[in-house]
Structure formats: C-alpha cells, structure tokens
Amino acid sequence: MGIRFRMKTPTEVRRVLVRVSNMVVNGQIEAKEANSIISACNAVLYAIKTEEQQKRIEELERKITEYEESRKGGEWY
Q1: 37, 9, 8, 6: which is closest to 21 by C-alpha?
Q2: How high is the pLDDT of residue 75?
Q3: Cα distances (Å, whole numbers) of residue 3 to 37, 45, 52
Q4: What is residue 76's predicted lDDT score, i.e. its pLDDT?
Q5: Residue 40: CB partners within 8 Å, gap ≥ 6?
Q6: What pTM does this model have?
Q7: Which of 15, 23, 46, 64 could form a disulfide with 28 if both were Cys (CB 3.0 to 4.6 A apart)?
C-alpha cells in the first residue's frame, strides 16, 4: 500500500505539493515518483478549475435568464 493524499480542494493539492517536495529533499521518494504525483496534482487542479468555471458560467446564465424574464414582465431592477 502506497502513500495516500487528499486532493479535493486547491488547498489540499497545495499541501500535497509541499509534502512531496519535502519527501524528495529528505530522500523519502525518488524524483520520478514525485514528478508523477505532481502531474496528478496538476490534473486535479485543472479539473477543479474547470468545474468552478462551469459553475460560474451556469450561475451567470441563470441570472441572465432571470433578468430577461423580469424585463418581459415589466419589472425593473
């Protein structure tokens, strides 16, 4: 069983990166292993960023739709 890392948030990914860097410096893992973990961290960060952007886009679309519907009803904000 290998090392397990939590990487659900950008903060957790940042902690993993620091931990992995320290492990390389202390000789606990090889640089090749660290590079694999760092690549995984980058993929996770990209996925988190993409998901957050999608949520923001959906929220903006919802607000635009609400605004357009309110204009049709004669309401002004």
Answers
A1: 37
A2: 55
A3: 10, 19, 28
A4: 55
A5: 7
A6: 0.73
A7: 23
